[in-house]
Design a protein that fits this description.
Among the domains are: 82 residues, Helix Hairpins; 110 residues, Sandwich (HSP40/DNAj peptide-binding domain), CATH 2.60.260. 26% of the residues lie in helices and 28% in strands. The chain is built from 10 helices and 17 strands. A hairpin with a 2-residue loop joins strand 15 and strand 16. It is elongated, with a radius of gyration of 33 Å.
Length: 378
């Protein structure tokens, strides 16, 4: 039931006025927190991960979000009628009935119902490793779609037979009825109950599709994943969705990308961020340290007197822009000075002598801080 679901904004922990950036940031944090790879065997985390992905799938799409804001979960519940508000349907007739009464035809009409109709698009979520998303890859995507029945060719009739013109509506797909409305008695057209608006009836149904003319099949496609694709982005394969009706075009296959978190890097767009620990001696004296990059480990020189929290920028060492290898982000490394623990007596003695030899001249910021407070009388 739609009512039993948690509010999508509550799931992501954002306000209803949150912009796309805030929604994406909240989603990334929660997806990483509850990701199955980081919580093996934790069913509760797995359920929360699914809930977070479902909420993001709706709130990251402007059209879906607008529907959700108006109708809530009912917007995506087939049993709810898409959360439609009060309208002509509440009086027992459809707006098409008014068109029928005044203009002699239905607003939709059998011609539209029997005309070409586009097939449904299919949405599939594909999970990639961090490296697969950054460098690109080929992946097999398996999904289900609706296609024409191979036995009856989509007619729904048993091989060797064909559908008949509906005797009730004469093939129009609609019948004339009179209805009492708020405007009085009106003549209108309604969908034929015998043929359900198709204008045809089937005496001998196809045993393979049971008269529907279609079947649900599993399909696998090899898909090229472009380098640089990010979490939440979508790849659309045109006409790879369900087959259309009455010669209409097929729908699309929409592949929604989910990227597993990395143990070292945090990604924001095309830029990468990571923390690098250094020793007290390396920070004070300067050193050449090993830095992890997408291409592997490389040397980087830390200058003398580096403070903890200092950020260094390695330009063009981030992720390439999707479908544009000439544009690449940066890699930002934040160094954190590790204070040594469990010192021996000899080490403590050396440090005490070192501290005494420094005086205040080596700690200009702290000296300035105390001088400022003494000047203010503190």
């Amino acid at each position: 039931m739609a009512d039993s679901k948690r509010d999508y904004y509550e799931v992501l922990g954002v306000d209803k006025s949150a912009d796309d950036a805030a929604i994406k940031k909240a989603y990334r944090a929660l997806a990483k927190k509850y990701h199955p790879d980081l919580n093996p065997g934790d069913k509760e985390a797995e359920q929360k991960f699914k809930e977070v992905n479902e909420a993001y799938d709706v709130l990251s799409d402007p059209d879906k979000r607008a529907k959700y804001d108006q109708y809530g979960h009912a917007a995506f519940d087939p049993a709810s009628g898409m959360g439609g508000g009060a309208g002509f349907g509440d009086f027992g007739f459809d707006i098409s009935d008014i068109f029928s009464s005044f203009f002699g035809g239905s607003a939709s009409g059998a011609s539209r119902r029997n005309g070409p109709m586009r097939g449904e698009s299919v949405n599939v979520r594909l999970i990639l490793t961090f490296e697969e998303a950054v460098f690109g890859c080929k992946k097999d995507v398996t999904y289900y779609k609706i296609q024409q029945c191979p036995d009856c060719g989509g007619s729904g009739a048993a091989p060797g037979t064909s559908p008949k013109t509906c005797a009730a509506c004469g093939g129009s797909g609609q019948v004339r009825v009179q209805q009492r409305t708020i405007f009085g008695m009106m003549q209108s057209a309604k969908t034929c109950d015998m043929c359900h608006g198709t204008g045809k009836t089937i005496e001998n149904k196809c045993s393979h599709c049971r008269g529907t003319g279609f079947e649900r099949v599993q399909k696998t496609l090899e898909v090229n994943i472009p380098a640089g694709i990010d979490d939440g982005q979508q790849i659309t394969l045109r006409s790879q969705g369900s087959q259309g009706l009455n010669g209409g075009p097929a729908g699309d296959l929409n592949i929604i990308i989910s990227v597993r978190p990395h143990s070292v890097f945090e990604r924001d767009g095309d830029d990468l961020y990571c923390d690098v620990p250094i020793t007290f001696a390396e920070a004070a004296l300067g050193a050449e340290i090993d830095i992890q990059t997408l291409e592997g480990s490389q040397k980087y020189t830390i200058p003398e007197g580096t403070q903890t929290g200092t950020v260094f920028t390695l330009r063009n060492m981030g992720v390439q822009r999707v479908n544009n290898p000439k544009i690449r982000g940066n890699l930002y490394i934040t160094v954190n000075v590790e204070v040594p623990k469990n010192l021996t007596a000899e080490q403590k003695s050396i440090l005490e002598k070192f501290a005494a030899s420094c005086g205040e001249s080596n700690y200009s910021k702290r000296t300035g801080f105390f001088k400022k407070h003494r000047k203010n009388g503190n």
